[in-house]
Specification:
single chain; about 160 residues; mainly beta; five-stranded antiparallel sheet; four-stranded antiparallel sheet; about 30% strand
Length: about 160
């Protein structure tokens, strides 16, 4: 049950990974075509009642501007890298991303969760370039955005930004 006349603004959401092996019913809120907003409890209590569980929402995806460029944060281990992509303007989200080390070709990354993308490759001790397509369809190559001396846990800002 929703609270009448209540609204909130959501500026970031979690992508809930679907399980296509299960039916798309009320117990499968991550499966398309259902939009899924995994909200912090105090925020969700502004628009709904906790005991209800899943709350249907009406939402609008709006384009926005960001100051500065896209940022990439890297975590993981020797053969497992997770890249968090943040500060994404206009469409606000990433459709696909690839990484290229100085000793590799382009490696397609898969979505891990939310704005986290992963690959299973040994990329340490080499400069990295990232190529990304926004959900708006714009493709940008972030050439050598990560220097050869990077460490897990670091964030690398760019000067480039999405226009759509």
């Amino acid at each position: 049950m929703c609270k009448t006349g209540k609204a909130i603004t959501v500026t970031a959401t979690n992508f809930c990974a679907p399980n296509y092996n299960l039916p798309n019913d009320d117990d499968r809120w991550c499966n398309p075509p259902r939009a899924h907003f995994d909200m912090f409890q105090p925020a969700s209590l502004n628009i709904g009642i906790y005991e209800v569980g899943i709350i249907p929402v009406v939402y609008q995806h709006v384009k926005w501007w960001r100051s500065g460029g896209v940022r990439f944060s890297i975590v993981g281990g020797n053969y497992f890298q997770v890249v968090l992509v943040t500060n994404i303007a206009r469409s606000g989200s990433i459709k696909s991303i690839s990484v290229k080390g100085s000793n590799t070709g382009w490696i397609h990354m898969s979505r891990n969760w939310g704005a986290n993308w992963q690959c299973l490759s040994a990329l340490e001790k080499q400069p990295l370039s990232l190529a990304s397509t926004s959900t708006g369809g714009q493709y940008i190559v972030f050439q050598n955005v990560v220097p050869a001396v990077w460490l897990f846990g670091q964030t690398f800002p760019t000067w480039q930004q999405f226009d759509y």
